[in-house]
Amino acid sequence: MRRHPYSNLDATARWRTAVAAVGELDPMTEAPFQIGPKDAVVTAGSCFAQHIGRHLQEFGSNYLITEPAHPMVGEAAAKRLGYGIYSARYGNIYTPRQLVQLFDRAYGRFVPIETVWREADGSVVDPFRPRIQPGGFNGVAELEHDRARHFRAVREAFERLDVFVFTLGLTESWHSREDGAVFPLCPGVAGGVFDGERHALINFDVDQIVGDCRAFLECLRSVNRSARVVFTVSPVPLVATAEPRHVLVSTIYSKSVLRVACDVLAREPGVAYFPSYEIVASGHAGDYYAVDRRSVTREGVDHVMRVFERHFLKKSFARQVLEKARSIVGGAASRDADVEADAVRRAFDVMCDEEALELIAKDC
Predict the structure, then answer these.
(1) Dist. CA 358–CA 114, nearest whole Å
(2) For residue 364, is pLDDT > 60?
(3) Residue 196 φ/ψ, nearest 5 degrees
(4) Cα 93 from Cα 158, distance rounded (Å)
(5) Where are the domains of the chain?
(6) 111: phi then psi, degrees, rounded to nearest 5
């Protein structure tokens, strides 16, 4: 019998045994490291990253919150103000360039030219967290005080974490022509005034994404040498594209670039890739998109997190998670149907800065 590299492939390497003939799709093989119950986990990224953080909090992981709301602020109000959604109150971070910039600003290595956006009603908006304070801040002093507190929380998160999970979301971004500062939203969408002389579109390519991620890894390990990082790609399509082409074409470009970049990065020590994008967007696990063909359903998120738990949580910790999940499901089964539906709706109500683009479209 002839022998060749395909003679003794693992079942995960063959389409028939790995995709076509499986009950639940699991596109992971072996994770390069695992997370224990005492490991401090910090998350950041696009709006899909909120599902990962919420899930880890619900099931008892050591999810690090370094910027909590004041005890007098109720849960609903705290969420509207961006507390507890991520480890710190930085809102959605769609690109690695934005992540590097957050680090540099928190450690005083970069001060952008545009530090505040003044609105017509007298309020001010943080250009780098434009939707974090509904209605804006009352004045520059209030914003600067909040920003200083926020930067302390960011530094604490980076220095204390054991595992950092970052969800890459977009390649399109808007930046300042003056100093290169990147914004989570185009100026003028949720604050500020767009000026073509000062602001420009940038659509990152693979080399730029990889370079920015490596720059962040270097920054992170300069303050936390043992930090481990999990990169994943959001399966959520673009709300809109600023490129002169169909939004679907831009979405496929964006996700392809991010996915290739993650493949390059995952070859480095202390870095892992988690295939949340493949589980949802491939369609091979089922249709996990809601009627808007953009939002990921509860079933899709649950599938993603089951795979995450299976590979990244240590076995003893995973058993604890499974027992807690069963108790939650069992309790939910006894609730009134309307109450349960409302709880599910609230759990999956994520803060997505990019949705502001859709709101503008509806208003026009």
Answers:
(1) 25
(2) no
(3) -60, -20
(4) 15
(5) 29-363
(6) -120, 110
Backbone angles phi, psi at 147, to 5 degrees: -65, -40
Rounded distance between C-alpha atoms, residue 134 and residue 83, angstroms: 13
Give yes or no for a contact between 95 and 170, defined as CB atoms under 8 angstroms apart: yes
Amino acid (1-letter code) at residue 180 = G
Which DSSP string do the residues of 186-215 spell out, in sequence order? -TTSSSS---TTTEEEEE--HHHHHHHHHH
285 alpha carbon, distance to own chain's centre: 22
Note every long-range contact of 314-322, with CB atoms under 8 Å and residues 24 or more positions apart, other chains counting: 314/34, 314/35, 314/36, 314/37, 316/37, 317/35, 317/36, 317/37, 317/61, 320/37, 320/60, 321/59, 321/60, 321/61
Q: How far apart are CA 52 and CA 165, in angstroms?
A: 9
Q: How far is CA 187 from CA 38, 66, 192, 199, in A?
A: 41, 28, 5, 8
pLDDT digits (tens, 9 = 90+) for 313-363: 987 666 666 666 556 555 544 444 444 444 444 445 556 666 666 655 554
Query: Cα 101 to the chain's mean position, in Å?
Result: 16
**CA distances from residue 179 to 199, 229, 291, 334 in whole angstroms, order as listed:** 10, 29, 41, 56
Distance CA 117, CA 139 (A): 10
